[in-house]
Amino acid sequence: MSALLEVDGLQTAYGSSQVLFGLSFAIESGEVATLLGRNGMGKTTTVRSILGLTPAQAGTVRFCGERIEALAPDRIARMGLALVPEGRQIFPNLTVKENLLAFAARRNGSPQPWTLDAVLALFPRLAERLRHMGNQLSGGEQQMLAIGRALLTNPHLLILDEATEGLAPLVREEIWQCLDQLRAQGQTILVIDKYVQRLLRLANHHTLIERGQVVWQGDSAQLAADPALWQRYIGV
User: Fold this and answer.
1) Cβ of 185: how many Cβ atoms within 10 Å?
2) 72-90: pLDDT as tens digits
3) Quick check: 138 and 96 in contact, CB under 8 A?
4) Which of 102, 161, 206, 224 has the fewest Cβ atoms surrounding its Cβ within 10 A?
5) pTM
6) Are 108 and 145 contained in the same domain?
7) How many helices and strands (H and E) does the chain possess?
8) Cα separation of 116 and 61, whole Å?
9) Which long-range contacts does 87-91 make (Cβ < 8 Å, 24+ apart)?
10) Residues 52 and 166 in one domain
11) How many CA atoms lie within 13 Å of 77's alpha carbon, on the beta-carbon side?
12) In this predicted model, what pLDDT tens digit does every residue of 168-183 receive, in sequence order?
């Protein structure tokens, strides 16, 4: 069976500045995978290229068996690929409920789709703030809202770009527990984050990149056994 997402030989540039140099990795259905590396090494550019926001110059991206590297971002999203972006990017002038329902869809065809009630059960704090505007929420609440909004599209693949960045430790742990629950429910997830110790418990497979190239791939047991890799490529 082919992977849910296959990235092969991806090359991407911003004008004359090339960022990705033949990046390749794959994510199987039901897997939690990570993309790790220091800031500025191409992680967010990789995500933008997968989503069609920064078109690839070369290489292929296959999602659900279909090549998507030349498709428009809205078409890719409708195929069932959802992003929780760095910085959250919620709508400040919409209520929590309006933010959640703005893009609600049933893209993965699940017999038990995410609904508003299901998201509010996952994040009870949002249930208490349904009528609050987006800009009235704390950073942690905004992150919960961003994740809930993505889940309500019922995606095949959920991508989280620095989902715990800037959060207080207790709130960060709430997000990790949420991701643990999603993994247990079989949600396929790609996580970009710097908390390697927590990712070792969450993820099945890890890809380390340096200057737009894959430098290592392996499972959590392999990564845990080689902390020198962390120092060299992640700076933990």
Assistant:
1) 11
2) 999 999 999 999 988 778 8
3) no
4) 102
5) 0.94
6) yes
7) 10, 10
8) 31
9) 88/139, 88/142, 88/143, 88/145, 88/146, 89/146, 90/134, 90/137, 90/142, 90/145, 90/146, 90/149, 91/134
10) yes
11) 15
12) 899 899 999 999 999 9
